[in-house]
Amino acid sequence: MRLLFIGDIVGRPGRRALKENLPGLQRELDIDFVVANGENAAGGNGITREVARELLASGIDVITMGNHVWDHKEIFDLIEQEKRILRPANYPPGVPGAGFCVYETGHKGRIAVLNLAGRVFMSELDCPFRKADQLLAQLEGITRVILVDFHAEATSEKMAMGWYLAGRVSAVCGTHTHVQTADERILPGGTAYITDVGMTGPRDSVIGVKKELVLGKFLTQLPRRFEVASGPYQFNAVVIDIDDETGEAREVRRIQNFE
Amino acid sequence: MRLLFIGDIVGRPGRRALKENLPGLQRELDIDFVVANGENAAGGNGITREVARELLASGIDVITMGNHVWDHKEIFDLIEQEKRILRPANYPPGVPGAGFCVYETGHKGRIAVLNLAGRVFMSELDCPFRKADQLLAQLEGITRVILVDFHAEATSEKMAMGWYLAGRVSAVCGTHTHVQTADERILPGGTAYITDVGMTGPRDSVIGVKKELVLGKFLTQLPRRFEVASGPYQFNAVVIDIDDETGEAREVRRIQNFE
Amino acid sequence: MRLLFIGDIVGRPGRRALKENLPGLQRELDIDFVVANGENAAGGNGITREVARELLASGIDVITMGNHVWDHKEIFDLIEQEKRILRPANYPPGVPGAGFCVYETGHKGRIAVLNLAGRVFMSELDCPFRKADQLLAQLEGITRVILVDFHAEATSEKMAMGWYLAGRVSAVCGTHTHVQTADERILPGGTAYITDVGMTGPRDSVIGVKKELVLGKFLTQLPRRFEVASGPYQFNAVVIDIDDETGEAREVRRIQNFE
Amino acid sequence: MRLLFIGDIVGRPGRRALKENLPGLQRELDIDFVVANGENAAGGNGITREVARELLASGIDVITMGNHVWDHKEIFDLIEQEKRILRPANYPPGVPGAGFCVYETGHKGRIAVLNLAGRVFMSELDCPFRKADQLLAQLEGITRVILVDFHAEATSEKMAMGWYLAGRVSAVCGTHTHVQTADERILPGGTAYITDVGMTGPRDSVIGVKKELVLGKFLTQLPRRFEVASGPYQFNAVVIDIDDETGEAREVRRIQNFE
Ligand SMILES: [Fe+2]
Ligand SMILES: [Fe+2]
Ligand SMILES: [Fe+2]
Ligand SMILES: [Fe+2]
Ligand SMILES: [Fe+2]
Ligand SMILES: [Fe+2]
Ligand SMILES: [Fe+2]
Ligand SMILES: [Fe+2]
């Protein structure tokens, strides 16, 4: 099975990048399943029903989220209805939505997608490591093809998760920093790993935001309403080849397309 | 002028990587000046007189530091005596050592090296943006070839610094996360930029530390004495071509060598 | 001179507490000057022109602020026009408003009020200790009666400021935690000190906010729009007796009135 | 039942304060049970076997801990052997020691002591609110006299815990900030509450540490080895009267003794 994982889609430029790049990649690379982090898809913050529909119509099979998941109120209903949107699984019990799900890819069999969030420099969620253990126990016997989006800030927490799940899942793809890292590799046991897949959004920006606004914030410490930058996009993703039977990743390759 | 900037050197494996890679690179790439971040060079924490001598003898021209700069007591004397070791310039006035210096490269002219540290998720230093302004004013008329090591955690603060100094310095090289990013580029005005140059140290580790120790920390929240991992190394660096006259960067290229 | 410093006024219940308590206290205690922290006076977040007018009309001479200072847009104009509103002095240069001012109390002479904010667990401002040094140098020869509102989270940073300014100012009053501390004392050199003056606002709340909302936040980690609690108020303040000539504090006394 | 809860005991001055104050208080106030936070009892950091023996011999029945619990290596064995030392219950499963225990007070019946730690501005532990629910379920039918030491930084998290447990436990005593708060009260349902009991240690200090060292840290941002201050002590505690049958608190009173 060939999987495409797309880094945080930011606003309109990110969605344009998606529509201009995904069809071609699917054709050229013969992609079986597409997962994208969509936590910044609607104006840079969260996702709306309409934007979710747009992403899913563009060819994305599953949308994962992160700390921005709750930015738009309609997510609370949407995430209960739409099984193709996941939020970090390590929110406390009782929170709307699901943090993992098993999907049918067609003749290539099933794939499980897990969304987890880090805690270092972030918010006070349940332990993502122990939550991973619980979810993997539930997947026993259902599928060995398992993709994890670990949405986290600290490189240490992300690499630790990579090693923790090495040999137990097909891939651990980091998200959240909006900068693609150059450390993609196959960890022992056949787990594809990358610290951060990067951002699909406006290139001449500070992680997607108008650079003047972010600089103003750093220089004055005054609050600024952040807006998504305009201009040419970047498309950041990874392609992962997975053995359908064993769930082992054979190859992981970074993709960076520019407008 | 061709510059080599080497990402955080971690412990013995990092120093071995240095000695096995630098001479060859210098020969093949015709490097004029070598800067390396050495904040983890001595056992993963800080630097000692002996390790500094070792690094400088291996071909490094200037050692920059970061939040680990003060881990060994002897740094307090050492940094006053050795002009080739810099610590972040935005420590409060009166702190030992210097945060920038101008060096002679020989027939290629002068180069200024600036070391700055971020504040987001880090400690309460002076504003690195305003400090950069001050130092650049001091360099007026002395040299236009200026390299900045911005040692910071958050991608937003690092990219903001890149844009802030675009067209004003030759290069902004991020350090600290120990993971090389794949976003190297020449910003408008001729400034080479990369969010993080990465780590020169043990590859099968969590940012240089034995992975079992870091995982134990995350799983139990008990304190652990971290030790540098052993095993094969990675060598992370960037090569930057700079116009000696204008100080503009023409090209930046990532380097990753593995044992 | 007898000074009254009132802890963070929170929303409507805080303003009601002010109006029901201040006149009586002024009469009974013969207060010469009233300073209050007003960063939460307008609906729990920041201050508006109308609320500022209300506070000043209620008998407050100077309003200090904190991290919530910029919550309402109109503060940007207001703070430039109204000298009786201060924001933390250790914002970067160029930020609207002032962080200190000297006021005439009438026949008791002048008083300087300084507003500073902490950095530990808060935002990346300039060093409040060095900023205090600068401001005190400017006050040399103008007045020895100096009140500092140090708006900070960590008890360590607040006590450190108390000791740093002991013998140099008349009083260091901590604000921000919304809980009055029981450590009021006169430090050597005649400086009144208290780690936190507390909150003037709704008593049956979590630091002023409806408790159900805060508990919901802690239990689910979902974002909540915080609202000021209703119900009976608490009025928190300190009375400080200062020698008009020397600026030395002779006594500090806590006040807690309940509805 | 009359309970005495003593705020964080810091180093030698704290232990001296204990020995000079506890016997008298026990006699005068007819105390039935004494709990003290001992996380800083040994030289300011953690506890040792010898110091624990000293505290228990001085009349303390149960020692609670906090974020400094693991500072001395011998705690790992000690806490497994000594049921009178508790560490925060919301460490992950498998961590040495216990976070709650039921004790016999003699003819006044049983008392349960729970130790919990906050997460805001602290480390990544399990949710203290849900952990409290679990432990209270285990205490069902065993005793209604329940004391909670909630070791936390943020006033919001502490007050939230007070309200969460109001009517379910006898007392919620906050610790960790080393400054006694003046907000002691009986919450609805008969729960004694105070945001922080304060510190039993050297008075002329920054939360127990030599003030010169802490000031040096704030002014230079250089690391400092903190040492417990010397000089006169303060003894901080609360006395709580609890109905043995219903477990309801009838009164809570702050104690501050000075040398
Ligand atoms: Fe994102
Ligand atoms: Fe995110
Ligand atoms: Fe480093
Ligand atoms: Fe670092
Ligand atoms: Fe406030
Ligand atoms: Fe505040
Ligand atoms: Fe403590
Ligand atoms: Fe503590």
SSE blueprint:
Four copies of one chain form a homotetramer.
Chain A lengths: L1 E5 L1 E2 L1 H19 L3 E5 L11 H9 L4 E3 L10 H7 L18 E5 L5 E8 L10 H12 L6 E6 L3 H11 L5 E5 L9 E3 L3 E4 L4 E4 L8 H10 L12 E10 L6 E10 L1
The structure holds fe (ii) ion (8 copies).
InterPro entries (chains A, B, C, D): Metallo-depent_PP-like (IPR029052), YmdB-like (IPR005235)
Family (chains A, B, C, D): Belongs to the YmdB-like family.
Protein name (chains A, B, C, D): Metallophosphoesterase
Q: Which key features would you list for this structure?
A:
homotetramer; binds fe (ii) ion; six-stranded mixed beta sheet; 259 residues; alpha/beta; 6 helices; 13 strands; seven-stranded mixed beta sheet; globular
Can you put this structure into words, describing what you see?
In chain A, strands 1, 2, 3, 4, 11, 12 and 13 form a seven-stranded mixed beta sheet that branches. A six-stranded mixed beta sheet of chain A has the order 5-6-7-8-10-9, with helices on one face. Chain A is built from six helices and 13 strands. The first copy, chain A, starts with a strand and ends with a strand. Chain A is of the alpha/beta class. The radius of gyration of chain A is 17 Å and the shape is globular. The longest helix of chain A is centred in the first third of the chain and has 19 residues, at 11-29. At the B-D interface, helix 6 of B face helix 6 of D. Chains A, B, C, D: This is Metallophosphoesterase. Chains A, B, C, D: It comes from Desulfofundulus kuznetsovii (strain DSM 6115 / VKM B-1805 / 17). Chains A, B, C, D: InterPro entries: Metallo-depent_PP-like, YmdB-like. Chains A, B, C, D: Keywords: Hydrolase, Iron, Metal-binding. Chains A, B, C, D: Fe cation 1 binds at residues 8, 39-40, 178.
